[in-house]
Known about the structure:
Layout: H1 41-53, H2 58-68, E1 73-76, E2 79-82, E3 84-85, E4 89-90, H3 92-100, H4 109-118, H5 127-134, H6 136-168, H7 178-187, H8 191-202, H9 212-229, H10 232-250, H11 264-271
Antiparallel strand pairs: 1-2, 3-4
Helix pairs in contact: 1-2, 2-3, 5-6, 6-7, 6-9, 6-10
Amino acid sequence: xxxxxxxxxxxxNVMAAKSESAEAPILEGAIDEEPPGLPAPDETIFxxxxxxxxxxxxxxxxxxxxxxxxxxxxxxxxxxxxxxxxGEAFDWLLLAERLLDQMTDLVPPAERDxxxxxxRWPIELDDDDFAARLGAAKHSAHLxxxxxxxxxxxxxxxxxxEIHKENRSRAVGQDRRVDxxxxxxxxxxxxxxxxxxxxxxxxxxxxxxxxxxEWKNFTYWLxxxxxxxxxxxxxxxxxxxxxxxxxxxELAVHQRRLGAALDESDFNARFNG
Length: 273
């Protein structure tokens, strides 16, 4: 397994520890905490288009529409759009892609592609403004996605590369199942054991070929499993590896944005409970 996207990461400090508690962390910002009375999807799309026609920049109108959106998933033209991983981690770019398909006549194609495929924002927007437009619940769930999916994918990639380096230094006995070794090294169990536990806890069975939306759900579940089973020093060490991997990836994609600064104090506040 490897990280699926290259990302910009404004990361300044190393990770500290989670608490000694064996209980799963309480993650903030479930979407069911949204205020009541959000408009229906069609109305949200209509408002978004009207705002752009009236002169608002399309990116600001898009973020405002995301803040008003109320569906955690939907199927459009046979494609499943699953915006929430584990009911807690919000992939706002996936929703942005879906909404941008509704305004191809209003958004320059190059700017649309830059956002969807490279997470390059067409205008400067500070993190506070970004958070305010998404709303407290969705922004908190967005942070869950950053740490629980993107950083976790980066950690997995880091360990895969670590294993590859170890294999290259061996004369014999190379490990051909790098992904299997990565899972065992990070999560302490084989792929089959993790799949079985995932099915037991979630009711979702993973087969040999897993669709990417379900893989993101599995990755977020692995993140929560790691927080449950590791001691605080190991959580700090592994999360530091993930953040370091994102920092290296940033060298090639310096224009990208996350919409939040990932740092030690934020990680502790969210997952040290």
